[in-house]
Predict the structure.
Amino acid sequence: MEEKVLMLLREKTNMYVSGEEVSRTLQVSRTAIWKYIGRLREKGYTIDSSPRRGYCLRAVPDLLIPFEIRHGLTTELLGRKIYAYATIDSTNRRARELAQDGASDGTIVVAEMQTEGRGRLGREWNSPQGGIWLSLILRPQIQPFKVQSITLLTAVVAAETTELIADVAVGIKWPNDLLLHGKKVAGILTEVSAEMDCVRYLIVGIGLNANVAITSFPESVKDIATSLLVQTGQAVQRTEWVRIFLQRFEQEYNYVVQHGFSAILKRWREYSITLGQDVVVHCAGQRIVGHAVDINEQGALLVETANGIEAFWAGEVSLHNE
Ligand code: BTN
């Protein structure tokens, strides 16, 4: 009901809507309306009230809450079911739990803060207030070896969305780090539950240091990580980022599942800051030096080494001169 009250006020943002009109339209008492208005204010909505004129919505908060994410969202599946938390240990962990309990394809989990955010290769992911910590539950009918392409697709869509929202130029470091002026601004962690030839579910976790203040970065990552706020001096509307991301992601994902990965691969290459570089690949305890020449249809990095072209599916890449 709160959402319905909000919708009515939203249609006439900056104008007064009488308590009587709200109560008549929604068929609830004026006392109940007052209660819902109180709850919306608690969430951060600025609503003026006047005994004679009624209620007037002045400002909406940039909070990752279902109301706001859903507002104007035109996806069919993605984000139709939203679990939102002020604080959680890890949205990926929660998403996995929900997926195991049968959560539907396209369910998303978001949080304002994570206390045990997880990164790739068993690392921690620093997740303070101001970022976007988001996990998608997907149930694609694809073979497990194609999962990597979904991760690369996520990186492309996250890069495009970020460029659109923050007016910056980002690059992708294989496989899926988003870099801004050489520092990491976002990362993606994909976790999969699969059998030999089919995927049960996929959790795609995206962490974007959107409006994270410089003071929120621990010393250990200050030299290698950044945020959109730090780089541009301006806060972005996180709910808008999430909405645009979900919309574009759904479109591209449906396309990739049906028609394959080639079109996305081309865009990934355009964003890549890894290809054409001398690299060091750290993979399964080994350190391999070579020249990154391409990625293949499955998203593996192709590196020309002393032994010829080698394909890497996982690992960490640093540019040789880093
Ligand atoms: C990386 O190491 O680059 C991947 C970082 C992924 C972080 C995101 S934040 C939302 C989701 N929940 C997590 O615990 N991790 C991912």
In short: DSSP finds nine helices and 15 strands in the chain.
